[in-house]
Amino acid sequence: MINPFRYGGIVGEGSFCDREQELRDLHRAMENGERLFVYSERRMGKTSLVRLALERLPRDAFDAAYIDLWPTDDEASFVAATARGLSESLATAPERVLEAARAFFQRLQPSLVLDTQGRAELRFALSATQSTGPELENVLRAPARIASRRAKQLVVVFDEFQRVLDYPSDRVERSLRSAVQEDAAVSYVFLGSQKHLIRQMVLERTSPFYRAGGHFVLRPISADAWDPFIRSRFSASDRGIDSTLIERIIDLTGGHPFYTQHLCHTLWELTEPACEATEALLEDAVELLLERESFAYLALWESLAMMQRRLLAALSEQAPVEQIFASAFVQRHRLKSASAVQRAVRALLERDLIDRSNGSYVVSDRFLALWIRRRHPTRAA
Question: Domain locations in the chain?
Answer without folding.
Answer: 19-217, 223-298, 304-375
